[in-house]
Write a structure and sequence with these properties.
binds adenosine-5'-triphosphate; disordered N terminus; globular; Helicase_ATP-bd; alpha/beta; P-loop_NTPase; DEAD/DEAH_box_helicase_dom; 37% helix; disordered C terminus
């Protein structure tokens, strides 16, 4: 079961490059895709809850949805205010009821404390749920609820009286696949008869059939399982690629995803979601999902307002470790992720920090699956507060308590260029759904400084320098950001405040 190793290795390496993105919505012609709809039979009654199992299986330990409370800092963001602002990606006009979801599904959403949809959910759901089913390529900022958008469509469409796989969700890492499985189970906890199965490397499943209406997997294992006839693809009617630009990347997972698709029935609904879609991937994506409705964003629109970006000027590579140790206290107030380029750097930093008496966890593609599960679960439930990792966890991971992301190494492509997409995904591990967070970038030489400057210019953001020789000041600055409450302010009001301050 080593078929996911290349995928993980690929995800470990910074791979994708960037290109200009257009903000546009494209509607396809009337003669669209896909098979006949099959409405699900749902039961409003509460059935045996799968929450416990879901949470154990990788979902956030507590899915508080809109309840924005950081445990240690006094962050009291009012989500309703953010959602009332038409310029905010969390804004919506409609309610979940108006989107035509079954009562059992609505109960699942409300139980997760979701009050109203985000922009992407409000836009994508009517398209996804419309009959005949149409393909979709959709882009939305990190942490704006893309998982719910594709999950709700799946819950709406599957036939619960049939145990055969009907929806396949592919994700680039085992951690993300497990997380999505948890979300589908939690959201579908009142959906009677729902079975969700993970197709990730798991020696304990050897020879066992993959049953359940929803399969969430990594592409390599999914392909293996279909080929070995352990996963029957014949009744699959929806294929979702989460982190689709990464999944279609021709250098890495693209080939595997193409092969999986070739093993599925024709005319299924194909759904591609990501926070980033470089132009060259969009072109390929439109072949993969023909006649798709499209929503893409400009790169200037991609950064999340709640994530403040700063950089620390270190005195060379060796000095980075000293600065990291200084930061440790701040990183443990809530949870933090440290991103490095290489697996051996991750292991080395873990070793040194542990030796210096600090508690940290480390996860990279070099570790075996069960060990990885144990580490990410510890991080999710707060037993481990500082996680050192590679790009394997750059995308999709949703741990709401993450308040600091450290780019120990500025992300770069295999060609040594700044990796714009990976940067955006990495910093997007904080500031989820209206929360605030800080991205701390380490620069240590001309090259890393230039890469960061290019990244900041590309996204049209300012990366503020913080001194590394005045720790009291630095600490106060970071704490100030994390304490900053946006309660009661719309994006426009905040903009005016900033304008006023600089006038
Ligand atoms: N309508 C909603 N109301 C409140 N919370 C929501 C809503 N939709 C999603 N969330 C929460 O927002 C968080 C981020 O959602 P999700 O992980 O789906 O983001 P994403 O857009 O897929 O991000 P990424 O691009 O990083 O993968 C999750 O904790 C989720 O439970």
């Amino acid at each position: 079961m080593s078929s996911d190793t290349p995928a993980d290795a690929q995800a470990d390496a910074a791979a994708s490059s960037s290109a200009s993105l257009e903000s546009r919505i494209t509607l396809p012609s009337a003669t669209e895709t896909a098979s006949e709809p099959q409405t699900s039979t749902t039961d409003p009654e509460k059935t045996e809850s799968t929450v416990e199992k879901a949470q154990h299986d990788g979902a956030p330990t507590e899915m508080h949805g809109s309840e924005l409370r950081e445990p240690e800092y006094d962050v009291d963001v009012k989500l309703s205010d953010l959602q009332a602002d038409p310029n905010n990606p969390l804004h919506s006009v409609k309610t979940f009821e108006e989107l035509g979801l079954e009562r059992s599904i609505l109960n699942g959403i409300y139980n997760m404390n979701f009050r109203s949809p985000s922009k992407i959910q409000e836009w994508a759901l009517p398209i996804l749920m419309h009959n005949p089913p149409a393909n979709l390529i959709a882009q939305s900022q990190s942490g704006t609820g893309k998982t719910a958008a594709f999950t709700l469509n799946i819950l709406h469409r599957i036939d619960l009286n049939n145990m055969a796989p009907q929806a396949l969700i592919l994700a680039p890492s085992r951690e993300l696949a497990r997380q999505i499985k948890g979300v589908v189970e939690t959201m579908g906890q009142f959906t009677k008869g729902l079975v969700v199965t993970a197709a990730i490397p798991d020696p304990s499943r050897r020879g066992q059939k993959f049953e359940g209406q929803v399969i969430v997997g990594t592409p390599g294992t999914t392909m293996d399982m279909i080929r070995r006839k352990l996963l029957d693809p014949r009744q699959i009617k929806i294929l979702v690629l989460d982190e689709a630009d990464n999944m279609l990347d021709q250098q890495g997972l693209g080939d595997q995803c193409k092969r999986v698709k070739a093993l599925l029935p024709r005319n299924i609904q194909i759904v591609l979601f990501s926070a980033t879609f470089p132009q060259q991937v969009i072109q390929y994506a439109t072949h993969f999902a023909p006649n798709a409705h499209q929503m893409t964003l400009k790169h200037e629109e991609l950064t999340v307002e709640g994530i403040k970006q700063v950089f620390l000027d270190c005195n060379g590579e060796d000095d980075k470790y000293r600065v990291l140790v200084q930061l440790y206290g701040l990183m443990t107030i809530a949870s933090s992720i440290i991103f490095v380029k290489r697996r051996d750097t991750a292991a080395e930093i873990e070793r040194r920090l542990t030796q210096d008496g600090h508690k940290v966890a480390q996860l990279s593609g070099a570790l075996e699956g069960p060990q990885r599960d144990e580490i990410i679960d510890r991080f999710r439930d707060g037993r481990a507060k500082v996680l050192i990792t590679t790009n394997v966890l750059a995308r999709g991971i949703d741990v709401q308590s993450v308040s600091i992301v450290v780019n120990y190494d500025i992300p770069e492509t295999i060609r040594g260029e700044p990796d714009y997409e990976t940067y955006l995904h990495r910093i997007g591990r904080t500031g989820r759904f209206g929360r605030v967070g800080v991205a701390v970038n380490f620069v240590h030489d001309q090259d890393s400084w230039q890469k960061l400057a290019k990244i900041a210019a590309f996204f049209g953001v300012e990366s503020k320098p913080l001194p590394t020789d005045d720790w009291d000041f630095l600490e106060e600055e970071i704490k100030k950001i994390l304490r900053s409450s946006r309660a009661g302010k719309t994006t426009k009001e905040m903009q005016m405040q900033t304008d006023g301050a600089s006038a």
